């Protein structure tokens, strides 16, 4: 009996052991895999972030630019080595860029929460710069002594530059962060062009810090109210004429008030209409180096603009006309945008047929205000427009004809500061040895631009373009001055004051993704 009992218990134990081993060998049930799902709520390209109700879209482009007759890739050839028109003016400048953007959206009980980030990685071929081994010398050297604008260091092929274009949150009608100005037309500075330097409106295509609210009224009608940072792109300068030089020097104080903007927009199937207004505080520093020298009072300037886009025109499918006009009073950057006038001034050199003249030069400067020690700020007025007509020849080719114009006007008080009274005195004449050869002194000027661009898109999202821009400076000075510009190789000599012309070519290859 004991033997039978032992056999039964032993068999049971063996069965339990075998059963346990078989159970341990079975696979454990896997957790559900979080597959990436298409998010159709916000258009093509959006996907749900796994494990969340947030949709994300990645995008960007890779671009290669080659520009002829300029040392700059982000503006016209109007001053410095660009405007020298000599051996320091580059025959070409090259830039390669990768753009990367992240767009996220989440549906909430208050509406969609959106974040948007856009960054660029850029390498620009170096330009010529002053010989750092001999400061002040007129000897120039190529790559190795001066870095191209925005590059980390000269001669560093692994360098380049990182830029942040946009970084903003949108929620319940609010936009908070770095985005295109609410004042700008939807095409910003590009009604039909690739050229960066069109006058006739604001730019901010690389974003400006703001706190904005947009109310939607239905049927495509909206109103935006915005407080916008004026420092990055909004300040053309409060020029202290007592600081020396023909136009003094910008004498900006610390930022104290943002620009205040209102924009009414009507966007429908036929196109778009927009009316924009901006108020801009001009906050100057001191007359001299310290507080005891005093300062001028603040002066508020303003700008107003109208923009119109007409679609479905009878010349062809997809053809469009974009136009806008602007007037400014002490808010110059809303017309002469930051890329339209490098360093806020124009100085273009060329030849001259005038006997005794070494060459010729044309000047143009457009600050927000000017003042002298002990005086108040004088606002500068401007008006301008820009526009383009784009025609699609077929699904692969299109051409745009574009143009822009800006007029800069100084009041009588400003002109007396700069040109003197009765042909005597003034900062302009004083800067050029008394200006004995100046027969007409007037700081007003006009700038006109016209261009044509043709694009070829052989396959979707791959475009090759050629963009040529002609510019004409209509300046109001006449006669001659004696001056030098050793920094760009110009000797001390007599130069004729005359209108100037310049042309620039931009070739681009771009792949969007």
TrEMBL record:
Q: Where are the transmembrane segments?
A: none
Main localization of the protein?
membrane
Record's bilayer topology term: Multi-pass membrane protein
Which InterPro entries did the record assign? Porin_alphabac
Q: Does the keyword Magnesium apply?
A: no
Q: Provide the alphabetized UniProt keywords.
A: Cell outer membrane, Ion transport, Membrane, Porin, Signal, Transmembrane, Transmembrane beta strand, Transport
**Which Pfam families does the record match to this protein?**
Porin_2
Q: Which residues form the signal peptide?
A: 1-23
Q: Where in the cell is it found?
A: Cell outer membrane
What does the protein in this record do?
Answer: Forms passive diffusion pores that allow small molecular weight hydrophilic materials across the outer membrane.
Q: Name the protein family.
A: Belongs to the alphaproteobacteria porin family.
Note on domains (UniProt)? Consists of 16-stranded beta-barrel sheets, with large surface-exposed loops, that form a transmembrane pore at the center of each barrel. The pore is partially ocluded by a peptide loop that folds into the pore lumen.
Q: What is this protein called?
A: Porin
- Lineage start: Bacteria, Pseudomonadati, Pseudomonadota, Alphaproteobacteria, Hyphomicrobiales
């Amino acid at each position: 009996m004991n033997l039978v009992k032992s056999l039964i218990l032993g068999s049971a134990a063996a069965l339990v052991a075998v059963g346990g081993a078989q159970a341990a060998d079975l696979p454990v049930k896997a957790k559900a895999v979080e597959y990436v799902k298409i998010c159709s709520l916000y258009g093509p390209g959006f996907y749900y972030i796994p494990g969340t109700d947030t949709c994300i879209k990645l995008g960007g482009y890779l671009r290669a630019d080659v520009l002829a007759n300029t040392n700059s890739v982000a503006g016209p050839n109007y001053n410095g080595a660009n405007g020298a028109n000599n051996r320091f003016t580059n025959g070409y400048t090259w830039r390669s860029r990768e753009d990367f953007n992240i767009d996220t959206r989440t549906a909430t009980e208050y509406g969609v929460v959106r974040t948007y980030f856009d960054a660029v990685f850029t390498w620009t071929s170096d330009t010529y710069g002053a010989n750092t081994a001999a400061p002040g010398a007129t000897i120039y050297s190529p790559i190795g002594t001066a870095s191209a604008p925005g590059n980390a260091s000269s001669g560093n092929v692994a360098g380049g530059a990182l830029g942040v274009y946009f970084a903003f949150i949108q929620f319940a009608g609010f936009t908070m962060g770095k985005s295109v100005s609410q004042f700008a037309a939807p095409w910003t500075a590009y009604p039909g062009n690739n050229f960066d330097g069109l006058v006739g409106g604001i730019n901010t295509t690389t974003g400006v810090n703001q706190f904005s609210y947009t109310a939607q009224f239905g049927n495509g009608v909206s109103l935006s109210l915005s407080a916008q940072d004026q420092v990055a792109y909004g300040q053309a300068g409060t020029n202290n004429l007592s600081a020396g030089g023909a136009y003094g020097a910008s004498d900006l104080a610390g930022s104290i008030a943002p620009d205040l903007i209102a924009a009414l927009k009507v966007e429908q199937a036929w196109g778009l209409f927009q009316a924009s207004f901006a108020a801009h505080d001009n906050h100057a520093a001191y007359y001299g180096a310290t507080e005891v020298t005093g300062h001028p009072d603040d002066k508020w300037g303003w700008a107003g603009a109208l923009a119109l886009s007409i679609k479905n025109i009878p010349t062809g499918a997809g053809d469009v006309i974009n136009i806008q006009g602007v007037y400014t009073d002490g808010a110059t950057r809303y017309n002469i945008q930051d890329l339209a006038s490098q360093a806020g001034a124009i100085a273009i050199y060329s030849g001259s047929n005038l006997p005794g003249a070494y060459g010729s030069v044309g000047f143009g400067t457009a600050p927000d205000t000017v003042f002298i020690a002990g005086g108040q700020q004088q606002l500068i007025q401007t008006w301008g427009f820009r526009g383009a007509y784009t025609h699609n020849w077929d699904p692969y080719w299109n051409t745009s004809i574009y143009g822009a114009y800006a007029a800069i006007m100084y009041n009588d008080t400003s002109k007396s500061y700069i040109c003197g009274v009765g042909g005597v005195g003034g900062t302009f004449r004083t800067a050029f040895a008394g200006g004995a050869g100046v027969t007409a002194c007037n700081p007003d000027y006009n700038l006109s631009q016209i261009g044509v661009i043709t694009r070829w898109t052989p396959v979707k999202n791959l475009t090759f373009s050629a963009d040529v821009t002609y510019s004409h400076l209509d300046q109001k000075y006449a006669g001659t001055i004696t001056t030098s510009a050793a920094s760009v190789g110009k000797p001390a000599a007599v130069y004729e004051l005359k209108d100037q012309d310049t042309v620039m070519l931009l070739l681009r290859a771009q792949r969007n993704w």
